[in-house]
Design a protein that fits this description.
Elements (H helix, E strand, L loop, with lengths): L2 E12 L2 E12 L3 E5 L6 H9 L6 E6 L15 E4 L11 H11 L4 H10 L15 H13 L5 E5 L7 H16 L3 E6 L2 H7 L2 E6 L2 E6 L1 H6 L5 E6 L5 H8 L4 E4 L3 E6 L2 H10 L7 E3 L3 H9 L6
Parallel strand pairs: 3-7, 3-8, 5-6, 6-7
Antiparallel strand pairs: 1-2, 1-4, 8-9, 10-12, 10-13, 11-12
Helix pairs in contact: 2-3, 2-4, 3-4, 4-5
């Protein structure tokens, strides 16, 4: 497997703001790669530089062995770009939109129509884009980015503002696109999305990559307690604390009695011996825990 994307020491400033600060990483052929971070972390700027939409102040980028900047006419047919905000031609139907995009690459109308079927939009082919739901508009946007069969697909916050059902539906589509052999690079701040879809993720903040690796490996590297929850009132807090031992913590919030422990097996055994496993919930660390440990918990607009 070769390297599809190579980024070395990327830098980009806007006045006093260091939007991208020494970013380096590579993406393998056929990989689903995620760039995660809170608002203002530098995700979109990094992606736009890689796509050739924005010039870096310094550093190098190679996509399929070519530099994307200045705008590279040899590279453009090989990449597909779905921007953070979908933008379509006014008053055109979904079929007319994708045929227009296809014509830019010399793709026949029949092939463009087939792409609507690939993304599950054939029943909306005659619907004007402004009448599509958020999930349908995102699917059409991805279809337009895929119509010329690019080798690499870039997606910037593709599930932003979608309801849970539309998000899950979109995930199935993105998995199928990646399974077909395409390299996919995704930016998102939805941690469950990255954990479900990505082979590797880079967690960014303040223009820097803080951690990079497979989601499961990043989670395993986090020294986080396992949380075991029972219905409130199942045990008193003192009895629960005695059962869990001095190294665990116990909290009863009136809804759940929750243990936080680094040794869950003995505690689960003790609960089983007392027939207290009914309705139990066990939660280990997630990518969200890694993300919050690295980037903090303060709200960012």
């Amino acid at each position: 497997m070769g390297q599809t994307i190579i980024v070395q020491d990327l830098q980009k400033r806007y006045g006093d703001v260091h939007a991208v600060d020494g970013v380096s990483f590579s993406v393998e052929q056929g990989e689903f790669f995620g760039i995660l971070g809170p608002n203002g972390a530098g995700k979109t700027t990094t992606l736009e530089i890689i796509e050739g939409l924005r010039e870096a102040d310094s550093g190098t980028v190679e996509v399929l062995g070519m530099s994307p900047w200045p705008r590279n006419s040899r590279l453009l047919p090989k990449i597909g770009v779905q921007l953070q905000a979908s933008s379509f031609f006014e008053r055109l139907t979904a079929r007319e939109q994708i045929r227009t995009f296809a014509s830019l690459y010399g793709i026949p109308a029949k092939k463009a129509d087939d792409m609507l079927s690939v993304v599950g939009m054939e029943d909306k082919a005659g619907t004007r884009s402004e009448q599509l739901s958020g999930g349908q508009a995102q699917r059409l946007s991805i279809a337009c980015a895929l119509v010329h069969e690019p080798e690499v697909l870039f997606l910037d916050e593709p599930s932003a503002s979608l309801d849970p059902q539309a998000r899950r539906n979109l995930w199935d589509l993105l998995r199928a696109i990646n399974d077909a052999g395409r390299t996919v690079v995704l930016t998102t701040h939805h941690l469950d999305e990255a954990e479900s879809l990505c082979d590797r993720v880079a967690i960014m903040d303040h223009g820097k990559i803080l951690e990079l690796g497979p989601p499961a490996a990043l989670v395993r590297g986090l020294d986080s307690a396992t949380h075991i929850s029972l219905a409130a009132g199942t045990l008193t807090v003192p009895a629960a604390q005695e059962l869990a031992g001095p190294d665990a913590s116990v909290v009863d919030d009136g809804v759940s009695l929750t243990f936080a422990t680094h040794a869950p097996a003995p505690l689960l055994t003790a609960l089983a011996e007392r027939n207290l496993l009914t309705g139990i919930s066990v939660r280990g660390a997630t990518l969200e825990d890694v993300f919050l440990q690295l980037t903090g918990r303060e709200y960012r607009a």
